[in-house]
Amino acid sequence: MMSRHLLIALLVLPTAAPLAAQDHDAVARRVLSTTPLIDGHNDLPWQIRISNDPLAVSAFDLRSRTSLHTDIPRLREGMVGAQFWSIYVPIDAVEEGAAKVQLEQIDIANRLFDTYPEAFEPAYTASDVERAFGNGRIASLMGMEGGHAIENSLGALRAFFQAGARYMTLTHSDNTDWADSATGLPIHDGLTRFGEEVVAEMNRMGMLVDLSHVAPSTMNDVLDIAEAPVIFSHSSAKAVTDHPRNVPDDVLRRLPDNGGVVMVTFVPSFITDDGNATLADVADHIDHVKTVAGVEHVGIGSDYDGITSVPAGLEDVSTFPALFAELSRRGWSEDELRMLAGENLLRVMRDSEAAARRLQRLRQPSTATIEQLDGPSAQR
Hints:
This protein is an alpha/beta fold.
């Protein structure tokens, strides 16, 4: 029988105190100092393009504070370890030649990296990301936003990959000739046969298939045929906020089999029904993706400088650690925070690179055309 003195001693033992606010901040900084925070989407190259000095990277001095969401001091304060810079091309560029505009956006991004070599290190693989992070620089990758930029050409798709693009969002605000957009009038019921060939060729090259902006039918068609993990570079959870740009739960439940990652975005209208979003609302979406898809399938895709308003508490690129501190307060472990920050996306990149090596042994680059696969009237 327990003695009276021992019982009293056990009753008065101090219990573990909850982490103080500053300790959650310390957790966030410890995680982000040792794991690269990979943001899936930042539109700075487009802001440069539409500045008063078109196409001039010198329009903004990124070594000092800018009027934008992004500059080098705030990227450092936000502990960003790697950035997918969106090389966005608007859908109406099809009229003037979307491929031309795409090449100009790639040029802007490359000149951005060249202008600030002390801050930005170009990256193309998972190993490149880790090396740049180890060198104290922000690993800088390019992501195409909108499959219309390839102008229905697999040769153009390969050329953009060779020029450095490492993901492509299959659609943007409207359908392509081969895939339905989340915000277009459905005409294909997902992917066409040529759309399937685009996905297959992206997998063969090692280019990440980005399902942000596509319709749920397209998401499911891609998951049916994908030979490598997919990403959503900047989307949130449809069950939390019913917006067409968000990911439905039935798609989230398919991600573990594919290995893909939803990089939760900060776009206010995607985060709350009234658009008055806060950091806590973003954390709710991250929690939901974790619950439904699993902690191995969630990441961060801010869309800074692609949005005009921001959630309270996430005003610019300096604020990422506050989001990680909030998740720490909610009970996320350091290992889980590392997965969210960058480990999940690095795994996706490595798996995509491995799939590409395997597929390149099995098949040659495709020379199929949209007319051959979808019929002579397929191209608009």
